[in-house]
Each structure stands twice: as structure tokens, then as C-alpha cells.
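C-alpha cells please, single chain.
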Amino acid sequence: MRAVPGTEFSIRFIHSVQKTPVEENLAVDADGRSFVLHSTKYQSFGVGLPFLEGEGDFRQEGDYYIMDNMERHFPALTLRTGVGTKLTLYLEGREYRVYESYPPGTPVEIYVNSLGKGLLS
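Here you go.
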């Protein structure tokens, strides 16, 4: 898929410990070489979920906790499918159910290639 600076996408999954939905909103960063995590939306506190002041701007919206303005940079993203986690990507209005394509435990690497034209591997 074509990925240019500013291309936004979301990763949604069921947290493996908390068993609640999580949504992470990211974009290809301005240099077109890596990713920036803008926000995370989740329903419960626990291991692996942001909650500390300084990680972003925290707010509650209905049943969800939202951490905005996180601005965390990643050169690549390594995700892993899991039993019941329903790992799904949302990009340009399309839904990619990663969990249906790969068996549990499979690592899935997401990166911007050196030409700045790739997103999923």
C-alpha cells in the first residue's frame, strides 16, 4: 500500500490480559520513514496501557479512557496475533482483519520501506 507522510491508520485489538478493546491511532511521520502514535483509546487500566501524566493528555469519554497527544515515534511496529485478540488494521476506509490471515502467535511487521511507498509487510 502507498504510504506518504501523514497517512493515518488505526490498530484495534482486544487486550490479551484485560479482555477489553483498545484502539491506537498512528500516522506515517513527517519524514516518511517511521510512525508516530498520536492517541490510544481503551476501556480499562492495566498492564501495557498508558496512564501516567506526561504520556499525553488523558481524558475520559463515556466508558472509554483516551490518551491524546502521545507523539511517540517508532521506526517499525511489530504486532503479534493472539487467541481472541482480533488484531485489525484500519487504513483508508478499509478494514484488514490480520487475525483471520495469520495463526495466533504470528509476528506481523509494519514499516515504511526505504522508498516511502510501503506500509504493510
